[in-house]
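Researcher: Structure for this, please.
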Amino acid sequence: MKITYVKVNNYRNIDGIEIAFNTDCNYIIGENNIGKSNFLSLLATVCSGKGFDEKDFDNLEKPIEVELELKLNPNEQGFFGDNFSPQDASLLKIRYQQAIKDAYPTIIKQRNQ
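Model: Predicted structure, token format:
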């Protein structure tokens, strides 16, 4: 399974960004304090299934929202029920959302239109 796309809102200093990943190799580079480590921390939280902490919210009035697209390998297809795209069984779209009052994020499956 490979992450192919991420969209993030209201996470630390990361808000309103969209990243499309290359399926072979990616590098995260940039100046200090632009969010590289925060982005990796976000991915670690999402991939571990943990909830976000209060310090993770840039604006406490808004939820943290993360949209992911995952490309499944052939042997991984079928493990996620009907959460895949109707046009492509190897593409999984998921949205995580957590408000400050929530202990854990809500996971919402998404379908391609």
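Researcher: Any notable elements?
Model: The chain has a mean pLDDT of 89. The radius of gyration is 15 Å.
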